Amino acid sequence: MTASTLIDRYHARDPRALARALTLVENDAAGSADVLRAARAAPHRPPVVGVTGSPGSGKSTLVSALIAHLRAAGDTVAVLAVDPSSPFSGGAILGDRIRMLRHHADPGVYVRSIASRGALGGLSARTLQALSVLEGFAFDWIFIETVGVGQSEVDIAAVADHTVLVLTPGGGDGVQAFKAGIMEIADVMVVNKSDLPGADRVVRELRAAQGLVTSHGPDDWFAPVVKARADQQEGIEGVLNAIRAHRAHLGEAGLHARRHERARFELRAALQDRAGRLVAGAGADLIDRLARGDLSADQAAAELLQ
């Protein structure tokens, strides 16, 4: 299939063309630049919601519940699930068929797993390009679910229009979020599994902690804390309303600024990816000289860049 044919079918909203386009950009294959250009020229810009939090907090369950709620209203939804990379194959350890199986037969839902490829923070340049392809396909909503470890929680704020931080009672998540600085990047905080003991205490702690780290000027956003039971579809409308309120707060100027920040992040990720390939291809002689102390790391990097 030629690139022009693929783009025509992509614009016609052919799901198979979407899958092919995503594969092209993820692998940086021939024709991927043309596909990206066509996707980014599309006028439609749906809300992009990043969902992050610690492993076991119920991120996938919450996304599944959000999908069900939005589909009941007639909206189409895409999910980009960023999975840890296999150290052997480089591919995603978790597959999109494992996640959110209840929606697999719904033509209005598209779920795609993408490997983090060992990127710092868990989000690679390929993640951003795959996101652009999904945006150009004119879904009504796009969700990005991160691996929920390391720095990915902070990085998602540079990628998504709205960042949802999922926490649970009883695990010290609220305190850890405060200590790690994650709370500062959250636009909406969801206390999931709110039927567990301590849920109300976590809500109070989060609201109190925000008062310590967030200024309260007339233009500042105070991230709402929403209780939910995603497995029971409870609190889901409240989560969506909080996201919509944040979108209204940002306005066109705020959304434009976030898209520019995303482009900056993509450039940084692409440079990190290229640097990683340079290091992987470094000759044994250069590595030996560095190990012996004949070169500093800065000098070795300068040689590689030359």
Features:
chaperone, 11 helices, globular, 306 residues, Rossmann fold, GTPase/Isobutyryl-CoA_mutase, 7 strands
Task: Offer a quick outline of the entry.
The protein is of the alpha/beta class. It is built from 11 helices and 7 strands. InterPro entries: AAA+_ATPase (IPR003593), GTPase/Isobutyryl-CoA_mutase (IPR052040), GTPase_ArgK (IPR005129), P-loop_NTPase (IPR027417).
Folded structure, characterized:
The protein has 306 residues and is an alpha/beta fold. It folds into two domains: 1-41, no CATH class; 42-250, P-loop containing nucleotide triphosphate hydrolases (Rossmann fold, 3-Layer(aba) Sandwich). Helices cover 48% and strands 12% of the residues. The protein has eleven helices and seven strands. Strand 5 (162-167), helix 7 (173-180) and strand 6 (188-191) form a beta-alpha-beta unit. The chain is globular, with a radius of gyration of 21 Å. Mean pLDDT is 84; it is low at 86-93.
